[in-house]
Structures are given as C-alpha cells and as structure tokens.
Design a protein that fits this description.
The chain has helices spanning 415-427, 445-465, 490-496; strands spanning 35-38, 48-54, 59-64, 71-78, 81-82, 86-87, 95-103, 109-117, 129-137, 140-146, 157-162, 168-173, 183-190, 193-194, 198-199, 210-215, 221-226, 236-241, 253-255, 266-271, 278-282, 289-294, 304-312, 322-327, 333-338, 345-350, 354-361, 368-374, 381-384, 387-389, 394-399, 432-438, 473-477, 498-504. It is mainly β. Strands 2, 3, 4, 5 and 6 form a 5-stranded antiparallel β-sheet that branches. Strands 11, 12, 13, 14 and 15 form a 5-stranded antiparallel β-sheet that branches.
C-alpha cells in the first residue's frame, strides 16, 4: 500500500485507505461538462496540495514537498499564466513539516499547521501537530502564535479553513470524543480569541476519516474529503449546504462526482467568488497534485469585491490601515482586515443582501468610510476604490449618517459611524471639529439652510450624549451653498446631501 500522509499534511503516521460505506451513501454523479486539469505549478516527483486563494484567485498559496520538507509556496496569476512558485519565507520554516494554510482574502493574516514547530511560541505547543496564526508585516510573516489549548489538543490538528469574514475556523483533528478516525471541527472567533471547537457532526463526520474542510466564500457550502461515505474510490470530495452561523447543522450531503473524484484520492476543494473554476488536490497521477475544476459544479453566490490603495492624502504614500466592514442594518462589525503595510493595498469581499460600510482607519489619521449596498440579487462585480486618509490635525471627511426624508432625526444605521467619531475624539483630546450639514438644491434656500442646520445639530447632540465635550464641537448648516457635484442629476444631488466633519487642532 502506498504511503499516504493524513492528507499529506504533517502527520507522523500513515493512514490506510480502506473505504467504509456510510449508512446513507450518496451516489457518484458523472459530470461530463466538468474538466479536471493538472496545474503547471505542480512539481515532478513531489507532493503539491492544499491551495488557498487570495485576492479573488490572483494568488495561490499551497503546500509542497519540493524542497525536501513540506513548506508553503506562492504563485501569482498574470496574462501569461501562473508564475514559478516562490517560498513564503524563512519565518515559516521553523518546523519539521509545515502546511496546510488558510489566509484571509487580502492575504495579510494566516492560520497554518506545523509539526514539531521550533520557532516563535514553540513553548506553547499542545500536540504533535498544532495550528498557528501569523500576520504579514513588512512583507514577512510575523507575530506567529500557537492558537493555544482552546483550539489545539494533545492530538493532531491540521488543515484549517477560514470563513471569508474570519469569524469561523474549520479544521481536522483526531482528538478523542469524535465520531472516529479524523473528524472536522469548527471554532468561532470571539473578543477573547478562538472558542473551544465544536464537532460539526452529521452528516459530515463518520466513524472513518473526514479531512480538508473548506468553507465557500459565501459561507453557504462546506467542502470536505472522506473515506467514510463511499464514492468513486479512496477519499472522495463531498459538499454539504445550509449550515448555521456557528458552522454546524449542515444539510444534505452530495458527492462532487467525477471527474473531480476518481478511483484515487481527492482532497482540498476550494471554491472562488465570481469565478467559474475551483481547485482541488488528487493523487491520480501518482504524487499529490493540484487540479483545476472547470466549471465549478457548486459555485458560491455572487459577491462584490472592493479593492484599492490607502494612501496619505498629502504625501500619497501608502498607509498601514485597518479595514473594518460593518453591516449597517445590524450595526455589527462583520469583518476586519489590514492593508499591506508596504503598498497600502486592501481587498474586501461583500456578500449579497446587506448594506455595508467600509472604514479605513490608522493611528494619527482621520478615519474614512464609504457605503456599499449589495442587493440580494446582485451580480458579482469588482469595485476599485482608492482611499485618501487625512492627518488627524486637519482634514474633512464625509460621515455616513442617515435621516428620513425631510427630517433631522438620526436613523439607527448612523450609530456605527458616529461611534467611530466618538472614539476618534477620545483618542485625540486636542482635536476640535465643525459638523457641517449640506443639502441639494431642491426646495427653497431657507428651508435647506434650516434642514441642514438641524441635521448638523442632531449629529453634534449625539456626540455630546456619548461623552464628547460640546466645547470641541460646532454645528453649521450650509444648506445648498456648498455643492460638491452637479445638482442637475440624481447622483449629483445624492452626493450633495451630506454631513461632513472638518477637523482642526
């Protein structure tokens, strides 16, 4: 029997491939419209597996044994195809075996598995293979930390997969108390760290082995590999749908079918937002290789990607900023990302059916927010939006505050933005600001002046009620006198209806 690593991910022991039929074995459909093609990045005679896609599939990070030990590699797609794979860096090479990895969509945060890790935080190792987190700082993976005993155990934890918003972490483990063999678990990110994992249960886990979980970009499907549900042979890839916000209670199970599955072993299916292809791993040609599945028979819902560069408004130099995505209807922060601190690049994915604000903030700068509405039936699209941040001592920003038509009462969705203003004032005690109200040109000049003054006053009053000293705030209504766009169009009038904060020391 050939050597098979536990999905080739850093297990010290081998696993046999004796299939065991599950009580409710799903059929193996044939999908003649789907092709499975080996990628050019695969090496000859070595294992290549566990791809993780960044920035909409422009970058793949994967695990390979081409250097003698399992390490992480990166390839970049261009019009000429995929680049020659490059090492993810020496900072991640402090282990006997390393991989697989999962990254946030912007590629600035990573969770990876390591066997016999002897780098930073090695003293906190829990078992033979543990999960670790890392942050990209100055182009180098840094702040490497063991996820600790709330996630890791004295057993084997590996093959992580992060949800797009970073709130759920799926992984495989053979810890005691599961269904048998290796099971799939899920942990939730909390204010104090990752929660204790929950076994995702049936219909996913069986008395045999379930591995390589991968949560779809829209969070509605979970892909995984199993030798306990029957199938085409060895380990097959399956998908379940309909899980809850905790990553459990999944619905009906589907075999992904041939040619994705084969008489050999398949693992690690990943699905991409707004793309027709997916990626998976198979040993059908001997070694583990990465394949492209086209078209993806289980595509996620369309999503909106927002990307660009955050720069200093004056110097135009890149700014290392935090990117916060907030659901305006619930007021909840749904995701937090970082810019690349070398380039200022950011990348965000937004699911359908919500109104969001995307806020860029950095120390010593005034934050900047913009609204993005993604209707339930929205088509996938890519939005490019560069952001200029002004130094805290001087600058004007438009505030995302909302009022009913011809009224000055603040709507509830204004609170996330105004609470950011409150925090800004608390962090910059020397700052004073003018709250400026503006309208479009519809209606009389006097009416618009009064309405804009009332709205500016409402914002000022809210800030005072939240603890900002009223002496630091002045509210002025400018009516229609200071347009920033053409009042002859609907779009122009919408931009002119605004409340701004003008900061000064």
């Amino acid at each position: 029997m050939r050597r098979i690593l536990y999905l080739a991910t850093i297990l010290a022991c081998a696993v046999g491939l004796t299939p065991a039929l599950h009580a409710q074995t799903p059929p193996v459909p044939n999908r003649p419209d789907v092709s499975a093609t080996s990628m050019s990045i695969n090496s000859s005679g070595d294992d290549d597996f566990a791809p993780s896609a960044l920035r909409g599939g422009e970058i793949l990070v994967f695990t390979s044994s081409r250097s003698g030990s399992q390490r992480l590699w990166r390839t970049v797609r261009s019009t000429g195809g995929w680049s020659a794979p490059m090492s993810e860096g020496d900072a991640l090479n402090h282990a006997e075996q390393l991989g697989a990895a999962t990254l946030t969509p912007d590629g600035t945060q990573m969770i990876f598995a390591a066997y016999e890790w002897d780098g930073d935080d090695a003293d906190h190792a829990q078992g033979r293979t543990d999960l670790y987190s890392a942050e990209l700082v100055g182009g180098v993976w840094s702040n490497i930390k063991n996820l600790g005993p709330d996630v890791n155990s004295s057993s084997w934890e590996s093959q992580p997969s992060l949800s797009t918003d970073g709130h759920l972490l799926f992984f495989a483990s053979d810890r005691p108390g599961g269904s048998g063999g290796t099971d799939i678990y899920v942990s939730q990110r909390t204010a104090s760290g990752w929660s204790r994992p929950t076994n995702v249960g049936q219909p996913v886990n069986t008395p045999m082995d379930e591995m390589s979980p991968s949560i779809a970009p829209d969070g509605k499907s979970l892909f995984f590999s199993s030798n306990g549900h029957g199938g085409a042979g060895g380990f097959d890839l399956f998908v379940v749908t309909g899980g809850n916000e905790r990553g459990t209670n999944w619905g009906s199970l589907t075999n992904m079918g041939t040619p994705i599955n084969s008489a050999s072993n398949e693992y690690y299916f990943i699905s991409l937002a707004n793309a027709k292809n997916g990626y998976f791993t198979s040993d059908r040609a001997g070694d583990l290789d990465i394949y492209v599945a086209y078209p993806n028979p289980f595509p996620p819902d369309a999503m909106v990607s927002v990307s660009g560069v955050v720069t200093d408004a004056t110097t135009k130099k890149p700014v290392a900023a935090k990117i916060i995505v907030t659901d305006l209807n619930s007021g909840e922060v749904v995701a937090t990302y970082n810019t690349d601190d070398r380039t200022g690049d950011y990348y965000v994915l937004l699911a359908r059916g919500h109104r969001y604000s995307i806020t860029a903030s950095a120390p010593d700068y005034i934050f900047y927010s913009d609204e993005y509405s993604v209707p339930p039936n929205a088509e996938g699209r890519d939005v490019k939006k560069n952001i200029d941040l002004y130094r805290a001592g001087n600058g004007t920003v438009r505030l995302l505050v909302y009022f009913d038509y011809n009224k000055s009462d603040l709507r509830p969705e204004s609170k996330p933005e105004l609470n950011r203003v409150v925090e800004f004032f608390k962090s910059h005690q020397e700052i004073k600001a003018e709250i400026a109200g503006h309208t479009d040109s519809l209606g009389s000049s006097q009416y618009n002046k009064t309405l804009s003054q009332n709205r500016a006053d409402a914002v000022r009053q809210y800030l005072i009620e939240q603890g900002v000293d009223g002496k630091r705030l002045v509210a002025i209504g400018y009516g229609e006198d200071a347009p920033i766009d053409d009042n002859g169009t609907d779009e122009g009038r919408a931009r002119n209806r605004r409340v701004e904060m003008r900061v000064k020391e």
